[in-house]
Automatic annotation (TrEMBL):
Name assigned to this protein: Adenine nucleotide alpha hydrolases-like superfamily protein
Keyword check for Repressor: no
Native species: Rhynchospora pubera
Pfam families referenced in this protein's UniProt entry, alphabetically: Usp
UniProtKB keywords: Hydrolase
Single GO molecular function: hydrolase activity
Amino acid sequence: MADVAEPEGRKIIVAVDDGEESTYALQWCLRNIVSSSETSSGARDTLVLVYARPTPPLFSAMDGTDNGREHHLFGTEIDFVPDFQVPTKTGVLFSEEITASLDKYSRDLADSVMEKAQNICKNHSNVKVEVKVTIGDARDVICTTVDRIKADILVMGSHGYGFIKRAFIGSVSDYCSKNAKCPVIIVKRPAV
C-alpha cells in the first residue's frame, strides 16, 4: 500500500525578538490564528519562528598592521572594505576578543529569545513549530524567509514608533508589510 502524505496546513511565520511586542504577537497568533485553524482534514499548520541576529560588518586593517587580520567595525553599513579603500561611514574598531564576546552575547540572546518563544508554543499540539535564526538585517531576513518557505501568513509585533522615530530608524513591520510576498498581520500590543 502506498504511503499517504499527511495533509499540509498553512505556513505561518512569526517574527520574534527580545521585545514584549513580539511576544504579544506570538501569543495573539496562537490564540487567534492557530487555535481557530483546526480542520477536519487533519492538516496541521507550521509555525516558523524567525529571529534575525545582527551581524557586525567586517573589514581588513588598512594601515598595514596586523598583517591582514580582520577587525570588526560596528555602527556602519559596510560589509567588507578591501585594503586601500576608505570607508564612507564611520564606526568603532574593536579587537578580535571584543568581537568574539559580542558574538557570544548575540548567540546567547538568540538562544534565549527562541527558548522563550518555544515555551510559549509548547502547549499547542495542533501546530508544528520550526525555528530559524538567521544573521542579517531583520527586514531582509524576514522577507527572504517568507519567500524561501512560501509562507501563507507573516505575523509580527509593532513597537509603536511615532512618525519621527520611524523616519530616522525605520520600521521593520512597515518594510515587511510593503515587501513580503504574503499577507502580513501587524499586531499592536495594547497600552498597559
